[in-house]
């Protein structure tokens, strides 16, 4: 390994391969408020404002100079972007609303979506203060308006009066239904988000309030006792019993608390009780007949779906023969694919064409945004059993909404569930958990994973508890697969990051070797060996800069064999890929990761003309003899990879490093997390918790202690109305 000079860590050397901005959407107000479906943090969308003409005469297109003075001032302070102002003023023109305070409120509602909120609370001083933090305060400093001090907010009472009187705004939950914004309970929504929230509320409440199905108590009791025999299984047993009788169960818990185990076993319970008496004489299925309920397993990303399927099948394989036969081999898919994705707002299954399944289990529900949850709930048969599984302490979805967190924290919707019969007891639930159970929520708390010397789970627990001293203590102890590299991450040198470099190079070597050998499974396995994670997209602590850095290290380390670049293609064998948009036809979705591997007989990758490497050091190869091409992209489960020809690939990026948002739903054996400076608005408790819990063996945090403290001190705030009853 050759030492790179410190200058190779110079941020200015980083090339941003992904600087494409979203298409301008400022003209059509409805599309202007449609969030990007990209799985990436909010700051990526800040630069949008720099691409959109707002009629500025100053030449600075980030400033909305044609807007009323109040909006101009808030724009100049960086509180709202020019696009937010543009949407608000356009909606104002369409509805005859000229009051600047109302337009400011609408611009804030648009702005709030980018932070993941569904609405803006004008009466919440903390939220307004958070919005007043310029969202582009990232180290790159590459977007948004120049910050001046924000002007004072409009006087609250008159602001609310103006909003309530506005022709732009519908007030309350009822008529009229054709206005672009909605004011409910002190919250201002863009109408589309209000409708999605109402849909989720209505359909969740209907599920909770539906009369319970009453499975045969003796059979249920026997199945629960068989599948959850130990005293320590009590909460898992309760969740399974709840799922057998009710139409919505929300199963939560941190890593290693047995969520997946519970899912697999509860499927066995549900299949058993659905199998009726087992009396073959009357035609009822028996154990040997296999599954009788149609079950769908889904997760927000392909990677998470692959993990879910693998984990569930692993648990099923350990069940007794009858339960194994009853449960079968459930397939997992993405939520998009389950619903039959056609476009961001259109799916094959919907309220008029329900999914056929009797049971639908969604894992990693924290990543499901409000709009997708609304579409999923609409598409379910009313009598289907829905089980939402996830960890509400993780980062919420990139798009607006924090549905899992909201469902867990809501006040109770239905009276105490009376159907908990037979073996389950709620004795060990505290008062808050008893209340949550009325909303179908069962929280698993016991960590069962046997890694007693690992400090990753105690670290995650300290982050979740907001205990920054403990977090730093565990990190600094440097034992049990946890380490802290204390550093100013904007000025890292080679020596400081040598551990990170060694891990990245090791994983990269294995990846490239497997890819060149045409070993798809080996390459996909190597892809999860180590991952560099960051918070930002751009800047010295951004994904673009670190992806370029890791790529340079790996190229250097594997240069002896030369790059393998099949002739006539830009595709480098061994390049790790990240899919950046959905392509239902190919079966790849935003956030899926894969790798380019040599296709067919590796000897077909013979030298083409090493002397004409187009200025690039490396080995060029001819296409395989059979014309099938010499490189193929592989994705998904290492044991059954999905192979995609390069000409059919949707847009992809190289993924030597990724944002923590992107990494959600995936796990890696080793994780190196590089945190931005403590002033970054993206440093949140959920970000740190999510990154730490992606690691199986080792998590290395490269950060200043101040940045760690800042992350732990800032839980994410997301405004929505789901936690409150309708007025
Ligand atoms: N009731 C139990 N008793 C003993 N061991 C259990 C129990 N439930 C789960 N386990 C074991 O604990 C480990 C973690 O379980 P599981 O993978 O189901 O957790 P999880 O919550 O899905 O974790 P993650 O979110 O990290 O994927 C597994 O090894 C599993 O076999």
From TrEMBL:
Gene3D superfamilies reported in the protein's UniProt record: P-loop containing nucleotide triphosphate hydrolases, RecBCD complex, subunit RecD, N-terminal domain
Segments of this protein annotated with the region Disordered: 1-56, 134-155
Binding-site list for ATP: 253-260
E.C. no: 5.6.2.3
Domain annotation AAA+ ATPase: ranges: 245-478
Comp. bias (Low complexity): 47-56
UniProt function note: A helicase/nuclease that prepares dsDNA breaks (DSB) for recombinational DNA repair. Binds to DSBs and unwinds DNA via a highly rapid and processive ATP-dependent bidirectional helicase activity. Unwinds dsDNA until it encounters a Chi (crossover hotspot instigator) sequence from the 3' direction. Cuts ssDNA a few nucleotides 3' to the Chi site. The properties and activities of the enzyme are changed at Chi. The Chi-altered holoenzyme produces a long 3'-ssDNA overhang and facilitates RecA-binding to the ssDNA for homologous DNA recombination and repair.
Misc: In the RecBCD complex, RecB has a slow 3'-5' helicase, an exonuclease activity and loads RecA onto ssDNA, RecD has a fast 5'-3' helicase activity, while RecC stimulates the ATPase and processivity of the RecB helicase and contributes to recognition of the Chi site.
Summary of subunit composition and partner proteins: Heterotrimer of RecB, RecC and RecD. All subunits contribute to DNA-binding.
Membership in a protein family: Belongs to the RecD family.
Name of the protein described by the UniProt record: RecBCD enzyme subunit RecD
Organism: Isoptericola hypogeus
Lineage: Bacteria, Bacillati, Actinomycetota, Actinomycetes, Micrococcales
């Amino acid at each position: 390994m050759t030492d790179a000079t410190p200058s190779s860590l110079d941020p200015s050397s980083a090339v941003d391969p992904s600087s494409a901005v979203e298409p301008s959407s400022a003209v059509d107000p409805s599309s202007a408020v449609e969030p990007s479906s990209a799985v990436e943090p909010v700051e990526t969308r800040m630069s949008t404002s720099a691409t959109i003409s707002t009629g500025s005469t100053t030449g600075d297109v980030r400033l909305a100079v044609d807007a009323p003075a109040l909006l101009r001032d808030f724009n100049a302070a960086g509180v709202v972007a020019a696009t937010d102002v543009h949407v608000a003023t356009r909606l104002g023109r369409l509805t005859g609303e000229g009051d600047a305070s109302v337009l400011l409120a609408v611009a804030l509602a648009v702005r709030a979506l980018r932070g993941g909120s569904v609405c803006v609370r004008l009466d919440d001083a903390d939220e307004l203060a958070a919005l007043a933090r310029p969202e582009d305060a990232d180290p790159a400093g590459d977007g948004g308006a120049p910050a001046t001090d924000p002007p004072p907010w409009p006087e609250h009472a008159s602001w609310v009066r103006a909003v309530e009187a506005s022709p732009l705004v519908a007030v309350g939950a009822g008529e009229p239904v054709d206005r672009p914004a909605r004011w409910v309970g002190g919250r201002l929504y863009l109408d589309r988000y209000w409708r999605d929230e109402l849909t989720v509320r209505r359909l969740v409440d209907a599920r909770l309030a539906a009369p319970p199905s009453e499975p045969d108590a003796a059979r249920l009791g026997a199945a629960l006792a068989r599948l959850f025999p130990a005293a320590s299984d009590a909460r898992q047993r309760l969740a399974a019993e709840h799922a057998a009788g009710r139409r919505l169960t929300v199963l939560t818990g941190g890593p290693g608390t047995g969520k997946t185990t519970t899912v697999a076993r509860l499927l066995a319970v549900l299949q058993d009780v659905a199998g009726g008496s087992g009396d073959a004489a009357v035609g009822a299925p028996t154990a040997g007949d296999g599954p009788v309920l149609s079950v769908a397993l889904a997760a927000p990303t392909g990677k998470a779906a692959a993990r879910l399927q693998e984990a569930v099948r692993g648990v099923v394989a350990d069940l007794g023969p009858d339960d194994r036969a009853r449960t079968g081999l459930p397939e997992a898919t993405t939520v998009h694919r389950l619903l039959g994705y056609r476009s961001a707002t259109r799916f094959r299954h919907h309220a008029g064409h329900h999914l056929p399944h009797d049971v639908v289990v969604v894992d990693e529900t924290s990543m499901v945004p409000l709009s997708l949850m609304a579409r999923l709930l609409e598409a379910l048969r009313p009598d289907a059993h829905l089980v939402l599984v996830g960890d509400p302490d993780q980062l919420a979805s990139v798009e607006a909404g924090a549905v899992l967190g909201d469902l867990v924290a809501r006040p109770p919707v239905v009276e105490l569930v009376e159907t908990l019969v037979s073996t389950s007891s709620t004795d060990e639930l505290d008062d808050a958990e008893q209340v949550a159970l009325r909303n179908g929520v069962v929280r698993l708390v016991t960590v069962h994973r046997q890694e007693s010397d690992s400090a990753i789970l105690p670290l995650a627990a300290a982050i979740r508890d907001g205990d920054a001293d403990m977090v730093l203590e565990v990190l600094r102890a440097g034992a049990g697969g946890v380490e802290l590299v204390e550093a100013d991450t904007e000025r890292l040198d080679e020596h400081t990051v040598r551990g990170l470099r060694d891990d990245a190079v090791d994983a990269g070597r294995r990846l490239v070797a497997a890819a060149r050998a045409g070993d798809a499974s080996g390459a996909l396995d190597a892809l999860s060996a180590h991952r560099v994670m960051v918070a930002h997209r751009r800047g010295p602590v951004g994904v673009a800069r670190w992806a370029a850095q890791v790529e340079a290290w790996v190229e250097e380390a594997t240069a002896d064999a030369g790059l393998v670049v099949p002739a006539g293609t830009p595709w480098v064998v061994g390049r790790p890929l990240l899919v950046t948009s959905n392509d239902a036809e190919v079966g790849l979705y935003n956030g899926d990761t894969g790798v380019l591997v040599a296709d067919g007989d590796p000897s077909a990758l013979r030298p083409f003309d090493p002397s004409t490497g187009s200025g690039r050091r490396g080995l060029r190869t001819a296409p395989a003899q059979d014309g099938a091409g010499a490189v193929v992209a592989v994705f998904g489960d290492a044991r059954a990879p999905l192979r995609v020809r390069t000409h059919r690939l949707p847009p992809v990026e190289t993924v030597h490093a990724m944002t923590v948002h992107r990494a959600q739903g995936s796990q890696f054996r080793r994780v190196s997390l590089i945190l931005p400076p403590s002033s970054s608005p993206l440093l949140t408790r959920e970000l740190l918790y999510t990154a730490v819990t992606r690691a199986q063996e080792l998590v290395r945090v490269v950060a200043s202690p101040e940045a760690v403290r800042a992350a732990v001190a800032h839980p994410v705030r997301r405004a929505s109305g789901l936690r409150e009853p309708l007025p």
